[in-house]
Amino acid sequence: MSVHAMTAKEVARKVIQKESFFILDVRNEDAFQDWKVEGDNIQHLNAPYFDLLDGVEEILPQLPQDKEIMVVCAKEGSSIMVADMLSEAGLTVSYLKGGMKAWSEYLEPVKAGDLKDGGEMYQFVRIGKGCLSYMVVSNGEAAIIDATRMTDVYLDFAREKGLKITHVFDTHLHADHISGGRAIAEATGAVYWLPPKDAEEVTFSYEPLEEGKDVTIGRTTITIQPLYSPGHTVGSTSFIVDDAYLLSGDILFIDSIGRPDLAGLAQDWVGDLRETLYKRYKELSHDLIVLPAHFMIIEELNEDGSVSEKLGTLFEKNHGLKIEDEAEFRELVTGDLPPQPNAYQEIRQTNMGKITPDEEQQREMEIGPNRCAVR
Amino acid sequence: MNANKVLDAKGFACPMPVVKTKKAMNELESGQVLEIHATDKGAKADLAAWAKSGGHELLDQAEEGNVLKFWIKKG
Q1: pTM (2 decimals)?
Q2: Which of A48, A70, A103 is the C-terminal boundary of a domain?
Q3: Number of CB pairs, chain A paired with chain B, less than 8 A apart
Q4: Are A148 and A177 in contact (CB under 8 A)?
Q5: Are A35 and A166 contained in the same domain?
Q6: Fewest CB atoms within 10 Å of the CB: A71, A108, A115, A216?
Q7: What is the domain extent for residue B11?
Q8: Contact A364 B41 (CB under 8 A)
């Protein structure tokens, strides 16, 4: 029996639709514990491939009879080997094409909402890593915010819709993933904007993002208003788009808030983070739809796979926005922080243009979950 | 380090470095040392975990350019 090569796109649809299936993850235990394909109705078994070289008999009793089984490994080689063995044992199985590498790189474009005069807001959900990027579309023009390094996805999307990319933004200097912003700007002639306080060491030219420098997309004046909102980094800048959406970068998420330590200055920036969340954001319209740069857990996805919530709802429900006591807040965001993202220092250096790793090295650097938040 | 046997698994992708290591190990006596050369980065964590689960001892590892070297003593 042949085995089916399941694409990351197919798996993403299953996760979004909360389909029930079974994953046999054949990576080593550490890799599995660190990061895996997650979904509401996914069951896992971790059995490293190197323990299955003599046969799969031992794990057969642990595999379901009535559920779709997908074998997963880092790149796909081992999962094909194990899937073949299971197939020979009479099971119908598939494997994840391209492995966790492909899963980490897959972007699912989801429409997050409408803008004035036919404009649209698209969210690109990097479902395997929890990164979110955006395309603001209006009258044949497009702006991209917090692009990943998979730049073809945005360029192809814009081409298919006949859009000219005119502006590219990063809300801050990212530490968890390599930005595609500069490459997209170079490929399209678009303007590349960065917060100057995060960009002091960059090796390339950029347009400094400052409050009051509103940007217009298309003829119908979809405005993108930068809002200085330090805390995750000293330069972190949010955007209010079309008076309807708040792109909060890594400052505010749906079920968590940004961590202030990834540039090494947690104690200095915790005050900024509190000021941004508890004063600057509180003064904004609570009807704004928050569109963050990450999600942490799959429960944060809406029915259609998008990640968004009204600012007012977050002030009611997000634990990180409801800590009255300043010392307690300080403890939350500096005390018991999760592990830092893989290779985050090298990622920051790459985003500053100081080092230029090749694609394979970039992949290795981005392995694992994003870990930009504290809950 | 003195090895009883050297396995060249350079250029092979996962799972081959471990598959070849296991095969080569079968031909050694307990206490003998196998030296493995690989280029697949995944081999680093996987050979260590495989050795542990198989009762072998990873004596040492080194990186020379793109080549990962491992010395495993058969258990």
Answers
A1: 0.90
A2: A103
A3: 42
A4: yes
A5: no
A6: A216
A7: 5-73
A8: yes
Q: Do A116 and A97 share a structural domain?
A: no
Query: Does one domain contain both A120 and A74?
Result: no
pLDDT interval class at A221 (50, 70, 90) = low
CA separation (Å) from A81 to A50, A56, A78?
11, 11, 5
CATH number at residue A179: 3.60.15.10
Verify whether the Cβ–Cβ distance B14 to A50 is below 8 Å. no
Based on the fold, state whether residues A42 and A119 are members of the same structural domain.
Answer: no
Residues of B in contact with A25 (CB under 8 A): none
ipTM: 0.90
Please name which of B40, B38, B60 lies closest in space to residue B48, comparing C-alpha atoms. Answer: B60
Q: Is A365 on the interface with B (CB under 8 A)?
A: no
* Token digits of residue A212: 């009051």
Q: Are strands A289-292 and A245-249 parallel, antiparallel or unpaired?
A: parallel
pLDDT digits (tens, 9 = 90+) for A241-277: 999 999 999 999 999 998 887 766 667 788 888 989 9
CB atoms near residue A195 (< 10 Å): 25
Contact A78 B15 (CB under 8 A): yes
In angstroms, what separates the C-alpha of A85 from chain B's closest C-alpha?
Answer: 14
A53 lies within 8 A of chain B by CB? yes
pLDDT digits 0-9 by tens, A289-346 = 999 999 988 889 998 999 999 999 999 999 999 999 998 998 888 877 777 777 889 9
Please tell me the total count of domains within chain A.
Answer: 2
- State which of A60, A85, A103 marks the end of a domain: A103
Contact A31 B50 (CB under 8 A): no
Catalytic residue set of B: 14
Residues composing chain B = 75
Number of H helices, E strands in chain B: 2, 4
Range of the domain at A69: 4-103
Residues A115 and A94 grouped into a single domain: no
Taking CA atoms, what residue in A is nearest to B46? A28
CATH code of residue B41: 3.30.110.40
Owner of token pair 């089916």: A4
